[in-house]
Amino acid sequence: MIHKTIIEPFKIKSVEPIDMSTEKERKQFLQNAHYNTFLLQSDHVIIDFLTDSGTSAMSANQWAGIMNGDESYAGSKSWQKMEAAVKELTGHEFILPTHQGRAAERIIYGYLGGEDKTFISNTHFDTTRANIEFSGAEAIDIPIPESSDTSLIHPFKGNMDTDKLSQIIIDKGAKNIGAVILTVTNNSGGGQPVSMANTKAIHDICKEHDIIFLLDCCRVAENAYFIKHREPGYENKSYKEIAQEMFSLTDGSAMSSKKDALVNMGGFLSLRDPELAKECTNLLIITEGFATYGGLSGRDMEALAIGLEEVFDADYLEYRIKSTAYLGNKLHEMGIPVMMPIGGHAVYIDAKKLYSHIPVNEYPGQALACELYVKAGIRTVEIGSVMFGKYDEKGELIPAPMELVRMAIPRRVYTQSHIEYVIETFDEILKTKNDVKGIKILEEPEFLRHFTAKFAPVDVNEKVEL
Predict the structure, then answer these.
(1) Which residues lie below 8 Å from residue 26, measured CB to CB, with a gap of 6+?
(2) At the topology level of CATH, where does 23-52+313-457 sit?
(3) How does DSSP classify residue 410?
(4) What residue segments make up the domains of the chain, in order of their start?
(5) Parallel, antiparallel or unpaired: strands 47-48 and 378-379
(6) Is 182 helix (H, G, I), strand (E, B) or coil?
(7) Separation CA 105–CA 96 (nearest Å)
């Protein structure tokens, strides 16, 4: 018998209470947070879709592993387990543990970057771009053209435009390319997957020009699910085998293990080249910790090693992808413009289409994030011109390609009733969409402004000049 209901392939052993705030209270909480969802207190949030990074519920086996954590400063047993798990997955010889993904990014892109260097990606995520640009290098995104049409159905909208890749290498000169980075799944591009064929094509181009090819592999298990079910020739391979094949095409990888390793803290950098690994290890020791812990406790490394096994469980991945699709498809059926087809870790709302009356320089995505919080206590994040917009020489906004709001679903945390609550909230979002006003920025830092910027609603009689 085939059941229509998607059930969680796990039982709940421990629960955490949710404080059920009122709409009146949330209006005040949001004002106190300067209309920035990152600045809200977690106990003022009912459903937290801000990020899937580090917000997973760990399994009983992971918690048991924590008790076995070896906290030795050098050469701990827990490090040996983590190193073995990462080596088996990636096939890379040199494994550097870090406290999270952006530490791995800082090490590798700080070393490879600098003035006159260019990094190319299907889409750099926020911390990746920030670490590259902080080094003085430039970061160029070249997703396939289909990626910008949120309504288009395409099996691998996360792919990189390989024709553009070849042209940029010619224009810039291969010696000036710091690395080519493939992000799987493509987070900033709507959580869309990347095909193995695209990965192979990138590998061939990089090999031809002797350019380093790196995998941003935060959600590599979720990406493997889509390859197995959408790409011919992979239907009989396991999810782990698919991931291992993808790694085999690369020179290294950086991972925030807070995603597909199902842990609350951790990351790694994996490399093939011994000289590059030597230089990065020196930076690791200077900035993170000794080479066998890299800023992680032994218990963190135990949980990470176990998580890298659990994430490839077929029942888990089936539940993970289908439950995310359930939410996204329900919203699509209601008439909410979402990134189609639905990705693995999040549902992305096209705020530019939903709030077509709000111009991009009044940040429709931030306006929607605020509305979701006030109406239902749902915390989300804008992935649009707040996160990726820049200014020209005159100080005028250069908008991001899309104005999205991401609802990133923590792994193994929320139940079906929580998801139904979110769906019901969008009924009200639709009813009141024409009443929503834009948002203006009052204060912002130079890098990663979305984390700490302060906002305010645009007054009904006020318009922000382009």
Answers:
(1) 44, 373, 374, 377
(2) Aspartate Aminotransferase, domain 1 (3.90.1150)
(3) P
(4) 23-52+313-457, 60-310
(5) parallel
(6) strand
(7) 12
Q: What do you get for the CA distance between the two ends of the chain, in Å?
A: 58
What pTM, to 2 d.p., does this model score?
A: 0.93
One digit per residue, the tens of pLDDT, for the chain of length 466 reads 778 888 999 999 999 999 999 999 999 999 999 999 999 999 999 999 999 999 999 999 999 999 999 999 999 999 999 999 999 999 999 999 999 999 999 999 999 999 999 999 999 988 899 999 999 999 999 999 999 999 999 999 999 999 999 999 999 999 999 999 999 999 888 899 999 999 999 999 999 999 999 999 999 999 999 999 999 999 999 999 999 999 999 999 999 999 999 999 999 999 999 999 999 999 999 999 999 999 999 999 999 999 999 999 999 999 999 999 999 999 999 999 999 999 999 999 999 999 999 999 999 999 999 999 999 999 999 999 999 898 998 889 999 999 999 999 999 999 999 999 999 999 999 999 999 999 999 999 988 899 999 999 998 555 555 4
Helix (H) or strand (E) holding 382: strand 381-383
- Cis, bond preceding 193 (omega within 30 deg of 0): no
Which class does domain 60-310 fall in? alpha beta
Helices of type H across 173-238: 196-209, 220-230
